[in-house]
Amino acid sequence: MYYSRKSIPKRLITAREAIEIVKEEPGIGKRMSVVGFTPVEMTSGLVYQQDAERLYSTQDIEYGNQVAATQTLRNIADAIRSRLIVDRRIAKTALKALPGLARQLRLAGPIAKLNEGLYNQASHFYTELQSSEEAQERMAEYGTMTEMLSIRLSLVADMGEAMKAQQIRIGQAQLTTAKRQAAMRKLDIWMSRFIKAARLAFYDEPKELKKLGIYVKE
User: Fold this and answer.
1) What secondary structure letter does DSSP report for 143?
2) Using one digit for the tens of pLDDT, what is the confidence trace for 176-191?
3) How far apart, in Å, do the first and last CA atoms of the chain sit?
4) Long-range CB contacts (< 8 A, 24+ apart) of 66-75?
5) What residue ranges do the domains of the chain occupy?
6) Are 191 and 15 in contact (CB under 8 A)?
7) In 10 A of CB 151, how many CB atoms?
8) pLDDT class for 57, splitting at 50, 70, 90?
9) 3-class DSSP state for residue 217?
């Protein structure tokens, strides 16, 4: 298979093995030096390969961190959503005779579906509820308000932190992807030159080309 058609992991392996062969086998190394791929140039290729391989591994780690951060946020959001549904239902019942307070708590409308909307909705509801003694007194008939509010506000704060953490992880993963792509472009350009030079150096020795991982038509 042509180098350019291989997957990234296979291109990394092909490049590493080809470079090692040229550096370790004097006969092949001498022939490659004649066409411009001296030991110094081969060292440059090895740096490109190692940089690309390191970034490829790092991307997997960053992607895993992003997935973990997203799952953490999802778990917190689900917990807030389920509690907010119940708490708003209680508030609507308890404050039925106080439409002004109901509007202050923004009880009309559905629960937001997206994380940012849910966070803003929950933050407003519990913050306003905390500042209204009258609303708390009315809702206290349905449970311990002080304890409930403390737990809910803590959960909202956790969601805010989880949202920030997710955005950081997404940014880190995107940055790593961009760096990996740039590193792979450098390696691919170098390998393109290497393959052309090798075909010139071993135009009559297909076995040597195959040893270097270069596709040879049968």
Assistant:
1) S
2) 889 999 999 999 999 9
3) 12
4) 66/166, 66/169, 66/170, 66/172, 66/173, 68/169, 69/162, 69/165, 69/166, 69/168, 69/169, 69/170, 70/166, 70/169, 72/162, 72/165, 72/166, 73/115, 73/159, 73/162, 73/163, 73/165, 73/166
5) 3-211
6) yes
7) 13
8) confident
9) coil
